[in-house]
Amino acid sequence: MSALGDAAGSFVHLVGGELAALSRRPTEDHTVDAVREVANIVGGVLAADGRLTDSELTAYLDELGPRLDPPLIVSTAAAREMHLFDGAAERLARPSVLFDLLVRGDARDGTRRAHTYYEAAMQVAHATAALDLVPSPDELGAIDSFRTALLRHLDAAGVSRPGQPVLATPPAPAATTATTATTAAAPPTASDPPPLRPVAELLAELDALIGLDNVKAEVRRLTSLLQVQQLRAERGLPVIDTSHHLVFTGNPGTGKTTVARLLSQVFHSVGVVSKGHLVETDRSHLVAGYVGQTALKTQQALESALGGMLLIDEAYALARGGEDDFGREAIDTLVKFMEDHRDDLAIVAAGYPEEMADLIDANPGLKSRFTRTVNFPDYTDDELLRIFQLLGDRNRYSLSDDALARLRHLIAVEPRTRGFGNARFVRNLFETAIAHQATRLAPLTDPSDEQLTTLTADDIAPVDA
Fold this sequence. Notes:
Order of helices and strands: HHHHHHHHHHHEHEHEHEHHEHEHHHE
Number of helices: 20
Mean pLDDT: 87
Structural class: alpha/beta
CATH architecture of the largest domain: 3-Layer(aba) Sandwich
Number of strands: 7
Strand content: 5-15%
Helix content: 40-55%
């Protein structure tokens, strides 16, 4: 049986079982509904790019046609004339009646039957996309829209997402992790590899980050592509050589390190790399001041990242200084290592957009390997405010109404020029507020818990004040 047949059969078995548990009727009573549901999912993915190949139609007719009620036993030519998939792609953008039934049951009973549907449906969607050597961007987009519709329906019903067992306590957002990146003062090191985590759990953590909607969508599409390629490889089907190296552009504090750390673990989960750890570095740890040492330093940094991901901060600095600068030697070493170890290493080059474009253009080897760029926009005022409040929640601080108004004003008047610190700017505001509160409360001999945990307008001040 094909990957699509396996995924479809598993969906019918698992979802039929969940429907049976919900209705307290035999599983067989729900087989027809589950088969129709899986056929709709497959049809939606196939129709997403507006073209249906004979091989796609044949797979649908072979694997799903006999299961339907009544069975669909026709030729591909007849199937085309029947317009089987008209409107199928649009249906993926909203949850089905069957999924809604499971979600409402979960909300009422405290169960997680909708999780079974979600996970089985994603397997079906990826198996459908795997019918092509390279799934089209429209197919990957349809899968992402389908996934988003299911998860938002869970959110609306107050049911936790797969991989996110406690809805009210989301994983750490970019605000808290993006500001703790390795700095130039510490050499790159390979920490203990993180434990292997399910893709659903990693994507749930990604979804919990504040803002970054376009970044999240790009990561999800890339993840789907890799899952499809993994599925084809497991089946002994041809796969294309997909570059695992990316360019991240944007101002500091926009979550680039956080997303890189999650992406390195996603790569581990789908078999792209063997360990999934992240090593952070920059020019100071790759380039030496004299001949022969730059290649050695660069090699050491790359070797420490083998099996995971190397994040090069301000990577454009490698191309500065002209032809005689040792940064060129680092680039040459980087390109050769990427070629020699392309099956167990991913590299993210991060920096400002214009300079990163210059870096990629500086070496043909970089241009052919860094084919995907992800732009990290500055956070909006509301998102920065949420980051501050989240820092407060995690440290048991709350804002009075006047403090909230003062904070909103300071965020609004901060110039959004090149180098704007985003989450780091907010962290500095938070730490400044804590220091001011401490000064204000110091004269009190026995402050109350409310005083110790409340920030007032007097505590909210510019960082340089």
